[in-house]
Structure formats: structure tokens, C-alpha cells
TrEMBL record:
It is found in: Nucleus. Signal peptide: none annotated. This is Transformer-2 protein homolog alpha. The keyword rRNA processing does not apply. It comes from Amphilophus citrinellus (Midas cichlid). Belongs to the splicing factor SR family. Binds to A3 enhancer proteins SRp75, SRp55, SRp40 and SRp30. Interacts with ILDR1 (via C-terminus) and ILDR2. Sequence-specific RNA-binding protein which participates in the control of pre-mRNA splicing. Keywords: Acetylation, Isopeptide bond, Methylation, mRNA processing, mRNA splicing, Nucleus, Phosphoprotein, RNA-binding, Ubl conjugation. InterPro entries: Nucleotide-bd_a/b_plait_sf, RBD_domain_sf, RBM, RRM_dom. It comes from the Eukaryota. Residues 174-184 have a biased composition (Basic and acidic residues).
Amino acid sequence: MSNRRRHTGSRANPDPSTCLGVFGLSLYTTERDLREVFSRYGPLAGVNVVYDQRTGRSRGFAFVYFERLEDSKEAMERANGMELDGRRIRVDYSITKRPHTPTPGIYMGRPTHNGGGGGGGSSSRRGRDSYYDRGYDRYDRYDEYDYRYSRRRSPSPYYSRYRSRSRSRSYSPRKCEEIWRTET
DNA sequence: GTTGAGCGTT
């Protein structure tokens, strides 16, 4: 038993939980559809289809919350590989348990429109607009998984995107965010 | 009905 692997967060073999990830969905499968299917195995605590921010359409995967672990186990076994709305869906225990926690120090949410939009001056104080001030960090401590990844990869999505634009120098994460806000 | 493989910030 020297196999002490902290497989929490392993994508290949997630730990059983009441939260199931459902992938390969049709874009037209709704939460209602999922609820119909998965409620067969037991009472649900919630269903959450992930939508694309830009288009507002489904991204083709969802998360189903059961109330009992035994039910989620059964649902995982039975619903995995089943056909739904013409698609073979994949069901697994979810790695993440809830939506992403923002990277500390950088506002990762959508930019709130600053009333006008005349000059390029987004000079309003942003500190008060962070997720922390909205109380998001009270839900739980940082999710080990995405926190680690966001630190290893880059401080923010904007960073990796705009950082490479300048070959002579690197933009700061803050600067990248500003560029992103300007162009969006 | 723009697929693919996708682990989430409405």
C-alpha cells in the first residue's frame, strides 16, 4: 500500500461524489431534459448546464447534483454512454464541485459596463468590484484543482492571450485585463 | 440546428 496518490482532482479517476459531470451533450439538451433523465436514479439537488458566455448557448456539458451518493453512483454507471438527444453522453464524477473560484488579486468576472464609454478611461476603482467583495470566497476555500492550475499556467486567461502580443516585453496581468476590457 | 472534446465565472 505504498501507493499514496492524492488522486483528488485526477481527471481519469475522480472520486465519487454527488456531483456528476455530464459531457458530450447536444447543444439543445436543456436542464429540464437532464432532470428528467437523471431523476430516475434518485432525487436531484440541482442541474446546471454550462453555457457559453459569449453566445449564450450550451457548451455541451453540464453538472448534475444528487442528494445521495448512492444515487449518483448508480446514475453514473447507468447514464454513462447512454444516448440523449442523439448524442452519446459521458457521465463521470465531477472533479470540480462548483464554478471556478477567481484567481486572487485579479478580477476574473465579466467587466461591468462603466455607464458611458466615451474615452478609453476605465479608471474606476476596481477593487470593490472583485468577487471577494461580493462574498464569493465565503462559499468555500479555494478549489484545489483550478487554483493550482490557474497559478501554474497564468494569472488569468487574458494574460496568456495578450501577453504574447508584445514580443519585446510582457504585459502585466493587470495590463492584459485592461486590454481585454477595452476590446470586449 | 457549424460536429470534434470539452470539468463550470448567466
